[in-house]
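Record filed below.
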Amino acid sequence: MSEALTSTDTTTEVTGSATTKLPKSYSRALQNRFTAHDLTTLLGSSVKPAFFYGSLMLPEMLVYALGDSDGDEDALAKRMTPAILRKHQRFGIRGLSYPAVLPSENDTDTVSGMVLFGLTKTQQEELDWYESQYERTPVQVEVELVDGTKKMIAAEVYIWKSGDERLIALEEQVWSLENFL
């Protein structure tokens, strides 16, 4: 059972004996769900939503990646919701604190993450530069609506393109946001 205690900057999540401090904007994004109507509106943008599975799940890190030091992480969090990417695996990267994702042939492989709606073309270009070791790739991700309905939507994810020799197999290490924090 999980119990959340909030402070001004972080949410402390207590699960069993482990305690993790989560940034408040990330906690907000984790709880965010859209109505079917809102989702249709959000999907009307010319730039596809982006699926993030590592440090960019944190609105604070997205502000940095977008090159917007005065950016509003709470505004980003309001445009984010949890999502699942199927038939992909998350890997650690030797010597780095962020993960990689690669497609998998296994139907049961999934990667949990966050999807961000409403990016501008300029922001997408900033992310392309920031994620230069990755290739932006179209995918389908599953999101949950306010009413509990699950819906598959078109999005884009950054897939690792810088060589498999640096990847750490899941058996050796599983990358987690909590360990990153």
About this structure: Helices lie at 24-31, 36-42, 59-65, 73-77, 121-130, 177-180.
